[in-house]
Amino acid sequence: MDLAAATFLGKLIGAGLAMGLGAIGPGIGIGIAAMGALQSMARNPDMEGTIVTYMFIGIAFSEALAIFGLVVSLILLFVV
Q1: Gyration radius (Cα) of the chain, Å
Q2: pTM higher than the cut 0.85
Q3: Which domain covers residue 61, as residue numbers?
């Protein structure tokens, strides 16, 4: 295997790891946020609108981490 092929293989492995590991945390976090919101709405249905608003804000911040992982993987593939 020559140097160019090894570099390309390293880019592919690095990008896959960046995206794969970068999506695990936000996926778990979004699941926990949705679970907590559903439990809160089951206990107090009158606060549904407020709970959903705060849940979506939390989900947006959590999803930003997955987008950062995507950006890092794209940088590894096309820039480096």
Answers
A1: 19
A2: no
A3: 12-78
